[in-house]
Design a protein that fits this description.
CATH architecture of the largest domain in chain A: Up-down Bundle
Largest sheet of chain A: 4 strands, mixed
Structural class of chain A: alpha+beta
CATH topology of the largest domain in chain A: Glutathione S-transferase Yfyf (Class Pi), Chain A, domain 2
Order of helices and strands of chain A: EHEEEHHHHHHHH
Helix content of chain A: 40-55%
Radius of gyration of chain A: 17 Å
Strand order of the largest sheet of chain A: 2-1-3-4
Distance between the termini of chain A: 33 Å
Oligomer: homodimer
Number of domains of chain A: 2
CATH class of the largest domain in chain A: Mainly Alpha
Strand content of chain A: 5-15%
């Protein structure tokens, strides 16, 4: 049985959603056959039961599960004999990493790439995106993103807990990747797919970790259009 | 066999070191009889083999182990049948939490309490502390700590990943405390023991978690002089 993942898409089939990437990596981690169905913002209301407002959403044997964290917990419970996403006792610490990604990483990142996101959306999604996000930020997308070079250093510095962790082990989860890795991976992949900004410096120890994550599951992370970053490559 | 912990002490037997508190809680977690031997800065050079420059240091059956992280790993390996500090697969994620405490929590906190630390040291330690820390910061301790009320809100905000985590589970480690909890606990305990500043707001969800940590192991965390914070109490 193939799991259907409703996967946010921009123009040129760019799969850019950080939250969808978590789920896509989690499904691959669980070795579940997946159809990642390209879904534009404007199409979300029509998927599944018509009640969905955000994605990722998955359909698994007729069951609809929404919200990336709920999906991860669902997969862990539904498929306990497959590789664990959290590790034996790791659910709560993984949740801590998610809260760090939500309160530090992604808020810092969105201000660096939000106009780029707009520019890489399908034209039918652009008006919705601009209006909803400019209302949220209280200024134009271009104003939010302006002077990002001055904020890039601060953003990189905020990644220090992850940077130090992967200097001692291949993954945040330890010897093997875990859902904690996919949480940060999703955020960086969001940027790589949709913005020409080289988010990490070429000598950043996180680049090697990011390359390893991109290589996982037969190079799943590379299977979308994206930008090159100096020093980033797979197969290391 | 009793484990000896060389435990940093200020005046009035205040046990204030964040790194020593991690180790003290870890020893209690492993249910190891412990003598927490009061040690002033000026006494560190004379302990054990005379080679130690920082504490915590433990002596366990003739073995000397230094550095709080190395001690935690040592305890986990030496006493595998006792309650796990990291959880089955949690060492790397716990290390992530430590890096977060080291790069976010403690650097933010030290600037709020450093003159208070000085004022609560034994008089024989004060000159050393002032000189070494003023050299590090490039200004007086009082200047570093000045206007802390203006920085307190930012510090509290930086705790958000932990705050959100304990709104879903009693401990960062999940249903039971883990070493990840002791990492953040040590930082907050540092402040509570040595500074009259109410570090957390009275309605902060972290207060309940902190109280639970203080209550652990027969109220071990209360067994030192410390300051009251509005809303903080044990036994909840």
């Amino acid at each position: 049985m193939t799991v259907v993942l409703y996967d946010l898409v921009g123009r040129e089939d760019r799969r850019f959603s950080p939250h969808c990437w978590r789920t896509r990596m989690a499904l691959a981690h669980k070795d579940l056959a997946t159809e990642a169905r390209a879904t534009r913002f404007g199409e979300i209301q029509a998927i599944c039961d018509g009640q969905q407002r955000t994605i990722p959403v998955i359909e698994d044997a007729g069951e609809i599960v929404a919200d990336s964290w709920r999906i991860a917990c669902y997969l862990e419970q539904r498929y306990p004999d497959r590789p664990s996403l959290f590790g034996a006792d790791g659910e709560s610490l993984t949740h801590f990493v998610q809260h760090w990604v939500h309160t530090v990483v992604q808020p810092g990142l969105v201000g660096l790439i939000i106009a780029d996101i707009h520019d890489h959306l399908d034209s039918t999604d652009q008006d919705y995106f601009r209006q909803s996000r400019e209302q949220r930020f209280g200024r134009s997308l271009e104003a939010v993103q302006a002077d990002r070079d001055q904020r890039l250093g601060e953003f990189r510095k905020a990644l220090e807990p992850a940077r130090r962790t992967v200097q001692d082990s291949p993954y945040l989860g330890g010897e093997t990747p875990r859902y904690a890795d996919y949480l940060l991976f999703g955020a960086l992949q969001w940027s790589r797919v949709i913005s020409p900004l080289a988010l990490l410096a070429a000598d950043d120890p996180l680049l090697g970790w990011f390359g390893r994550c991109l290589d996982l599951y037969e190079g799943l992370g590379w299977q979308t259009p994206g930008y090159d970053w100096p020093g980033l490559r797979g197969g290391d």
